[in-house]
Amino acid sequence: MKILHVIARLNVGGAALSVLELAAAQRRRGHEVLVVAGTIPKGEASMEYVAEELEVPYLRLPALKREVSLLPDIEAIRELRILLRKRQPDVLHTHTSKAGTTGRLAAILAGRRRPKVVVHTFHGHVLSGYFDTRRERTFRVIERMLAHATDRLIAVSDEVRADLVRFRVAPFAKFAVIPYGFDLDARVRHDDSTRVRKRAEADAGDTTFVIGWAGRLTDVKRPLDLVRAAAAVDGSVLVLAGDGELRADLEALTHELGMDDRVRLLGYVADMGSWYAAFDAFLLTSANEGAPVVAIEAQSAGVPVVATDAGGTRTVVDDGETGFIVDIGDVGALSERLRQLRDDPDLRRRLGATGAERMRDKFSIERMADDVDRLYAEIEQR
User: Fold this and answer.
1) Number of domains making up the chain
2) N or C: which terminus of the chain carries fewer CB neighbours within 10 A?
3) For residues 137 and 371, what is the distance between their CA atoms, to the nearest angstrom?
4) 263 and 240 in contact (C-beta within 8 Å)?
5) Do residue 339 and residue 375 come from a single domain?
6) Cβ-Cβ contacts under 8 Å for 240 (sequence gap 6 or more)
7) Which stretches in the chain have pLDDT values below 50?
């Protein structure tokens, strides 16, 4: 089977990693696969190196940009239409909103050369909480129209599907829920020697309670809550892997709260899989999530997660069993759960062990590839 994946950009994040892992698994199964991705905006780190590591064929399409921009968007549609006609894939699988729009419009314009299977994955959505009301309404209308030109829609969690049905993007039956899948044993290291090495890099002693986080320092992630929550946990160090437009605000708050010696801002790191070994707890403060990949990786390393009840977080974190879930913005509850983990090493070990087992069972790459293969086959057989 010839499969063409299109994603807006291969930046550091769960969506890009999921696409590349899926493409690699499909190639191992004998499919002919190409990943097409657009321009990575200034200030975001690239994961293009992962395509090379996984030996996934990759084509950069400079006209495909995250931001709405009329002329580049038209050019991206034109180039994708040419690519569809030239390669004649059996499957067009789009990911993220911009690639979903340009890719599916290109499929419509391809006419008789339209792929036999057209599917789109919502790794989350930007239909609420990202833009002003007018733009959100516009994007919802666009998604409803595009849904008619799509054979099936994929959501990465039940919660994402529920949101999309509530926004009337498509009926419930049009969606398939296919959770993420990763080669966690290859991605995540949590051996003792790695723990010692990474904690030394973080200047954290043996008895220090190390709280981890990874992502973009942007509004939807609520990074200032990270610092506020950690400030109320004595004996802790907060390690932040990532960067973004709120870095200066975070640094200012760190100084204001007297946390300069307890916060480690790493910037973007290429070896995130090794950093989980350094953490005693992982913290998520987001206002919206599809299915947080960093929480999957942290738990696979045996690290309990304290997270806000955002989007698909409950798909990943089992409250009271692999970590804790609290209300969005409840910094006091976040701090309380962190202190509970700090003071009870046996609880940390118990939650961590349960999480590691469940992540490998629920989020394996082969399970995801099986689910996607079955979906393609169902559509082809119609």
Assistant:
1) 2
2) C
3) 32
4) yes
5) no
6) 213, 214, 217, 223, 226, 250, 263, 264, 265, 266
7) none
What is the reported pLDDT for 130? 61
Distance of CA 19 to the CA centre of its chain: 10
Which strand (E) or helix (H) includes residue 128? none
CATH number where 80 lies: 3.40.50.2000
On whether both 369 and 307 belong to a single domain, the answer is no
Give this prediction's pTM. Answer: 0.85
Torsion angle in degrees (nearest 10) through CA of 155, 160, 166, 170: -10
Judging by DSSP bridges, how do beta strands 209-214 and 236-241 pair with one another?
Answer: parallel
**pLDDT score, position 138:** 83
* Structural domain range at position 233: 184-362
Residues 163 and 213 placed together within one structural domain of the fold: no
Burial call 196-208: b when 16+ CB within 10 Å, e when fewer: eebbeebebeeeb
Q: Which two tokens stand for residue 248?
A: 């200066």
Q: Scan for tokens 């506020």, then name that residue.
A: 228
Q: What is the pLDDT of residues 45-103, one digit of tens each?
A: 888 999 999 999 999 999 998 777 889 999 999 999 999 999 999 999 999 989 999 99
Contacts of 267 (CB under 8 A, 6+ apart): 241, 242, 243
Which residue in 132, 120, 133, 221 sits closest to 164, CA to CA? 120
SS3 105: helix
Query: Does residue 135 sit in the same domain as residue 249?
Result: no
Same domain, 257 and 268: yes
Closest CA to 379 of 150, 171, 160, 162: 150
Do 93 and 241 belong together in one domain? no
pLDDT, residue 70, reads 85
- Are 165 and 189 within one domain? no
Q: What residue type is 103 in one-letter code?
A: G
User: Two tokens at 283?
Assistant: 């913290």
Is 203 in the same domain as 308?
Answer: yes
Whole-angstrom CA distances from 130 to 79, 139, 236, 340 are 28, 11, 32, 33
Tokens read off for 337: 């759960």
